[in-house]
């Protein structure tokens, strides 16, 4: 969290699509302030600000906002098809870049964004919020405990929600020219990231899309799944969908223990989040039963995870601007690995659900 002497980072928002949560987070973060919003037109920016109760400079084009010298960082919630152009341009203008996930349509486009950030010495981060919750670090501690968890053997992740008819008809995430990745890019990104997180970001050897993919009439993925095969016989699976009941589960099974989370992407509550662990369980005597029962662990936080993400991003930006530090390389590396796996799932779907090799780029 920012100290009183720390400078406040001024954010600009490129686009007015689904900005409410991040704008409120920026406004609530001790280290940040919402300085400017840009839309396709000044009317769009004005409507966005008034509709959400935001106070900021308003611009009728993205170019105008990027020309504002007071803007130090930008959040890019535009449709995925526009990320590469505007996130890279923001970086070239010297703005630090927080981009909505998925950050790009493919690894090549993401590479353009990252290269622009590296060339300008600015920080890149994608907006995968749950990575910044203190529960995530606590869960990682359990997975790293050789005695309690052992060696990771399998990991299963889901992120599904039953979207409304209006969403399925009109949302940008179902339009091939705006967000052609559909459910794979929106919900599948979280699943893939959780699997890589559990494996210390080791890439799988192969990725195989699972049959039963559902497309809309425009050819955009509405529901899909895949299996990821790693070294040491580790197999992971995920399922993402716009057509099933809301779930955000991860299950990690080790040789000695297991982890279960019901709300990994977005906790049920803002100020606390739980996870369940079990170690050395076995069958009990008699006709039924096994134990011990899972243990619930609750982690509290003063700030919601989306605000914690903004705070971490601002901390890195301050380090670059004030202390002359280099941008943190972890975040673009993690983002690229997630994108690479997502690309391979899409390729496996296109090739008829055959295994596709994943190369560590």
UniProtKB/TrEMBL annotation:
InterPro entries per the UniProt record, alphabetical: Gfo/Idh/MocA-like_OxRdtase_N, GFO_IDH_MocA-like_dom, NAD(P)-bd_dom_sf
Coiled coil (UniProt feature): none
Family label: Belongs to the Gfo/Idh/MocA family.
Residue ranges occupied by any GFO/IDH/MocA-like oxidoreductase domain in the UniProt entry: 145-259
Segments forming domain Gfo/Idh/MocA-like oxidoreductase N-terminal: 9-125
Protein name: Uncharacterized oxidoreductase At4g09670-like
GO terms assigned for molecular function: nucleotide binding
Name of the gene this protein is made from: LOC116203267
Superkingdom, natural source: Eukaryota
Annotated source species: Punica granatum (Pomegranate)
A UniProt-annotated Pfam family: GFO_IDH_MocA_C3
């Amino acid at each position: 969290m920012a100290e009183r002497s720390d400078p406040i980072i001024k954010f600009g928002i490129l686009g007015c699509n689904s900005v409410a949560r991040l704008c409120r987070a920026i406004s609530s973060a001790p280290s940040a302030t919402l300085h400017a919003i840009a839309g396709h037109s000044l009317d769009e920016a004005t409507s966005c600000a008034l509709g959400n109760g935001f106070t900021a400079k308003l611009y009728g084009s993205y170019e105008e906002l990027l020309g504002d010298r007071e803007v130090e960082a930008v959040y890019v919630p535009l449709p995925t098809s526009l990320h590469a152009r505007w996130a890279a341009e923001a970086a070239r203008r010297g703005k630090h870049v927080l981009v909505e996930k998925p950050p790009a349509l493919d690894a090549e486009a993401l590479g353009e964004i990252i290269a622009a950030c590296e060339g300008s010495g600015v920080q890149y981060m994608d907006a995968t919020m749950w990575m910044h919750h203190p529960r995530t670090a606590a869960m990682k501690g359990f997975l790293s405990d050789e005695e309690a968890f052992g060696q990771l053997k399998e990991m299963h992740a889901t992120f599904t929600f039953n979207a409304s008819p209006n969403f399925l008809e009109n949302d940008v995430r179902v339009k091939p020219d705006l967000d052609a990745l559909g459910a794979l890019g929106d919900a599948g990104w979280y699943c893939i990231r959780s699997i890589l997180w559990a494996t210390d970001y080791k890439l799988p050897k192969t990725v195989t899309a699972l049959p039963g993919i559902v497309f809309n009439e425009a050819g955009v993925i509405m529901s899909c799944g895949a299996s990821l095969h790693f070294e040491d016989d580790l197999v992971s699976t995920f399922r993402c969908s716009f057509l099933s009941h809301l779930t955000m589960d991860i299950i990690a099974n080790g040789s000695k223990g297991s982890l279960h989370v019901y709300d990994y992407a977005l906790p049920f509550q803002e100020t606390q989040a739980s996870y369940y662990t079990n170690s050395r369980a076995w069958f009990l005597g008699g006709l039924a039963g096994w134990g011990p029962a899972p243990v619930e662990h609750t982690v509290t936080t003063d700030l919601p995870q989306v605000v914690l993400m903004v705070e971490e991003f601002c901390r890195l930006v301050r380090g670059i601007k004030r202390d002359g530090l280099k941008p943190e390389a972890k975040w673009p590396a993690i983002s690229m690995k997630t994108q690479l796996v997502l690309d391979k799932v899409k390729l496996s779907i296109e090739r008829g659900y055959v295994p596709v090799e994943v190369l560590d780029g």
